[in-house]
């Protein structure tokens, strides 16, 4: 499956548009994972190693990967071999501890453009 945020894939043409596909997840870390992330993030802040909350970022990375795998599955179910114009949104409502990750794009069937001989 070819994935791109561009509206096209170089060297290919869209043979058929198969519609919008979404990969979504609502993510909340378990208590153990939240505690582990908080301890890691607190350690980073106290030692001035990083200003990034790496434990939380790790959870968000996993949520995005899960949403992306759902997008790929849904595109494959439609017979797509590519998803173009991919975009993503993450929403984290204050105080909930939840994150909503949505990745979406256009499922398409693409074919390689054959080069003409002699050029």
Explain how this protein is built:
The chain has 119 residues and is of the alpha+beta class. It has a single domain (2-112), classed as Hypothetical protein apc22750. Chain B (Translation Initiation Factor IF3). 34% of the residues lie in helices and 35% in strands. It is built from two helices and four strands, in the order ββααββ. It has helices spanning 31-47, 54-77, and strands spanning 2-3, 12-27, 82-91, 99-112. Strands 1-3-4-2 form a four-stranded mixed β-sheet. Strand 3 and strand 4 (99-112) form a beta hairpin. Helix 1 packs across helix 2. The longest helix is centred in the middle third of the chain and has 24 residues, at 54-77. It is elongated, with a radius of gyration of 19 Å.
* Proportion in β-strands: 35-45%
CATH domain topology: Translation Initiation Factor IF3
Whole-number mean pLDDT:
82
CATH level 4 superfamily:
Hypothetical protein apc22750. Chain B
Secondary-structure-derived class? alpha+beta
**Rg of Cα set:** 19 Å
Report helical residue fraction.
25-40%
| Secondary-structure element string | EEHHEE
**What's the number of extended β-strand segments?**
4
> For the terminal residues, how far apart are their CA atoms?
30 Å
Strand order of the largest sheet: 1-3-4-2
Summarize the structure.
The chain is an alpha+beta fold. The chain contains two helices and four strands.
């Amino acid at each position: 499956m070819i994935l791109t945020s561009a509206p096209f894939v170089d060297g290919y043409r869209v043979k058929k548009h198969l519609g919008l596909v979404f990969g979504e997840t609502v993510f909340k870390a378990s208590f153990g994972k939240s505690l582990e992330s908080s301890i890691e993030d607190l350690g980073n802040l106290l030692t001035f190693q990083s200003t990034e909350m790496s434990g939380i970022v790790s959870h968000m990375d996993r949520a995005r990967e899960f949403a992306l795998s759902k997008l790929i599955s849904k595109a494959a179910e439609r017979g797509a071999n590519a998803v173009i114009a991919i975009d993503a949104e993450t929403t984290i409502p204050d105080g909930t501890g939840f994150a909503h990750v949505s990745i979406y794009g256009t499922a398409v069937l693409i074919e390689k453009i054959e080069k003409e001989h002699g050029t």
